[in-house]
Amino acid sequence: QVQLVESGGGSVQVGGSLTLSCTTSGFAFDSHVMQWYRQAPGKEREAVVSITRAGDSFNMAESVKGRFTASRDNAKRMVELHMNNLKVEDTAVYYCSVVWSGRRYWGQGTQVTVSS
To answer: Is residue 40 within 8 Å of 95, Cβ to Cβ?
Structure first.
């Protein structure tokens, strides 16, 4: 079955950087777009960054443009989210996600906390 496992979350100060990882199994990783989402307390889950099969990263949230990018290693079936110049408002649970056979799958999420 499809499994997505995020790691790398933690606490960081404003202006810091963090890289999240998502390891995957159970689907044809190299032929699917991968996405990162986040959900802050009391807010809806939002799409943050999408990465194509070829590894092109696209910001999906205006608030992260110029600060967040994604990368992928198809051989390792892994996608990463590189976050720079973090802000307090980036505090959220971050999820990687894929649509496989018409269904969207989620990992368990990893918490990122940015403090001033």
So the answer is: no
